[in-house]
Amino acid sequence: MRITQGTFSYLPDLSDDEIRAQIQYALDQGWPLSVEFTDDPHPRNTYWEMWGLPMFDLHDAGAVQYEVNECRKAHPEHYIRVNAYDATKGRQTTALSFIVNRPADEPGFRVDRQEVADRRIRYTTHSYATGRPEGARYGTP
Amino acid sequence: MTDNPGDAPARPPFGARRPSAEAAAPEREGPEPVPEGGTVNLSEARKQSGVDDMLAALDAELVGLVPVKTRIREIAALLLIDSQRARFGLTAVRPNLHMCFTGGPGTGKTTVAMRMAELLRRLGYLHRGHLVAVTREELVGQYVGHTAPKTREVLKRAMGGVLFIDEAYYLYRAENERDYGQESIEILLQVMENQREDLVVILAGYKDRMDSFFQSNPGMSSRIAHHIDFPDYTIDELVAIGDLMIGETGYELSEAGRDTFLDYLTRRSRQPRFANARSVRNAVERARLRHANRLFSLDDKEVTKDDLMRLEPADFLASRVFSQPDPGDPAQHGEQ
Predict the structure, then answer these.
(1) Which of A51, A60, A73, A106 is the best substitution to test chain B (most B C-beta atoms within 10 A)?
(2) For position A20, what pLDDT does the model report?
(3) For A39, which of A97, A129, A137, B271 could close a Cys bridge (C-beta 3.0–4.6 Å)?
(4) pLDDT digits over B112-133, tens only?
(5) pLDDT attached to residue B20
(6) Does B160 touch chain A (CB under 8 A)?
(7) Between A63, A101, A140, which is nearest B14 by CB?
(8) Looking at the complex, does the CB of residue A62 fall below 8 Å from at least one CB of chain B?
(9) Least CA distance to B11: which residue of chain A?
(10) Confidence band (pLDDT; 50, 70, 90) for B334?
C-alpha cells in the first residue's frame, strides 16, 4: 500500500527535476529546508529522524538536493521527506513537506480491533513493517 | 535495494516514470534544436544572452587588466558557442571553470569575481550567480570533526554561484601537518571535481604564495582550468581609476589638481605597502576630507557648486607622501 503523507502525495512520485523545482520554490520564498527520514510510516509518527541540521542561508536547490541524494544513498529503503519552514510570521510553521524517497515494497497496515467494555470496539492501525526491528523493516533482510 | 542485484531487476529510481506518449515528447527547455544543415545566428544569440552589455560594462568600468578581460571574453565565447553547439545536437562537455586569481593587493580580484558570477549566470552556466566570499576562518574548524561540516555548510551556501576564497594559501599550513586546513582542501577538491554543475570555485591571493600553495597541493592546481594573473596598474591606469572614483562620488579634479594627483600617485606607488586601486580609493577619500576641511575653515563662507565639487592641489599636497623622502626617486639616489 503506497502511503500518502504530505504535499503532492496523491500525485505520482516527483522526479528529481520536479523535486529540484519545488525546493527552489521554497528557497525563493525564503524558507529554510530540512531533510528527514524514517522507517516507521505510521501517520501519527510525526517526528522523523533528522538528516543533518536544517539548512539556512541557501540560494540554490542543488545544495538541498545534494543532501537528499546523500540521505538516499545512506537509507535507500527508508521514507525520506523534505520540509520547508516558514519563519516569517515568528512561529515555526511547516509550509511545505513532501516525500522524496520511499521503499520499493510497502506492505501497508492492518486494522486491529480491540473489544473493550460494553462490547465497544477500539480501532487502531498497525504497520506490518514495524514487526521487524528498526533499520531492518524494508528490503530483503 | 536487494542483496542479490544479479537476478532481480534493478529498482527504478524514485520518481522514474513509465514511458508514455506524453513523456516521449521532448520537454527540453532553452534554445530550440536546429535541424541538420540549418544555421544559427550568432549575433542574435549574443544579443539574447546580454553578454555584450556585460563585456562592454567590464571594459568601461574596469581600467586596464587586459589579460583578465581577454580571458573573460574567451570564456564568454566558449559558453555561447557551446550553447549553439547544443542546438545542433553536438555534445558540449561542460567546461571546467574553476579559477585562480593571482595579483597584488587592490588589483581588482574581488571585483572581477563578482562580475564573473553575474556573467556566468547570464550565459546559463550558473543558476543563481551570487558570490560567497570566504577566508580560512569560515572554512576551517577549531577542533577535530568541526572542519568538514563547516566547509560543507559554506559550499552549500555557495551552490548555484561562485565561492570566492580569498588568500586561499592560508588553508594549507606547511609547518603544521595536523592542521585542519588540509581536511578542508580535500572536501573542496572533491566538490570541485564532482559538483561542477553546482558551483564555481575561485581562489585568490598573491602570486608567489599561491605558487607555493599549488606546489604543496598539486591536485588543486590541476583542477583549476584558469590561472589568471592580475598585473599591477601603471600610473596612467591609476589616474584613470582615480578619475572614475572621483567622478562616481560627484567630484572633479581641477587642472592643477590632476597634475598633483599624478605626482601623488607616482610617489605613493614607490612607497611600501602600495595597494593599487585600494590606495587610490584611500587617497581620494582623504582628499575629500581635506577638501571639506579647507572649505570649512574658509573665512568667506560663500561657496559655489564648483567649489564644492572641485579637488585642488592643496587637498593632495597635505599628504604625508609629499613630506617623506621618496625612496624611488632617481634624483635622490644620485645625491646619496
Answers:
(1) A60
(2) 93
(3) A137
(4) 999 899 889 888 888 888 999 9
(5) 55
(6) yes
(7) A101
(8) yes
(9) A104
(10) very low
Cβ–Cβ under 8 Å, residues A77 and A39? yes
* Residues B80-114: b if buried by 16+ CB within 10 A, e if exposed: bebbbebbeeeeeeeeebbbbbbbbebbbbbebbe
Q: B52-110 pLDDT, tens per residue?
A: 888 888 888 888 889 899 999 999 999 888 888 888 888 777 888 999 999 988 898 99
DSSP string, A65-132: HHHHHHHHHH-TTSEEEEEEEE-TTSS-EEEEEEEEE--S----EEEEEEE-GGG-EEEEEEEGGGGS
**Cβ neighbours of residue A70 closer than 8 Å, sequence gap 6 or more:** A51
Backbone φ, ψ for residue A42 (5° rounding): -55, 135
**Cell numbers linked to B104:** 597584488
Predicted local distance difference test score (pLDDT) of residue B9 = 58
The pLDDT, as a whole number, for residue B62 is 87
* Residue that the C-alpha cell 535507500 belongs to: A76
How far B24 CA lies from chain A's nearest CA (Å)?
15
Nearest Cα of chain B lies from the Cα of A13 at a distance, in angstroms, of: 5
Look-up of cell digits 561542460? B94
DSSP reduced 3-state for B250: coil
Q: Is the pLDDT of residue A21 over 90?
A: yes
Residues B130 and B241: their CA atoms lie apart, in Å, by 25
DSSP B78: H
> Cα A101–A104–A107 angle (5° rounding)?
110
pTM: 0.79
Mean pLDDT score of chain B, rounded to an integer? 84
Q: How far is CA B145 from CA A51, B93, B141, B175, in A?
A: 17, 36, 8, 21
Which range (B40-49, B111-120, B202-211, B212-221) has the least confidence?
A: B40-49
Single out the residue of B322, B297, B319, B292 nearest to residue B308, CA to CA. Answer: B292
CB spacing of B198 vs A61 below 8 angstroms: no
Using the Cβ of A63 and the Cβ atoms of chain B, whether some distance falls under 8 Å is answered with yes
C-alpha cell at B142: 577549531
Nearest to B105 by CA among B286, B281, B285: B281
Q: Which of B2, B13, B130 sits opposite A59 (nearest CB)?
A: B130
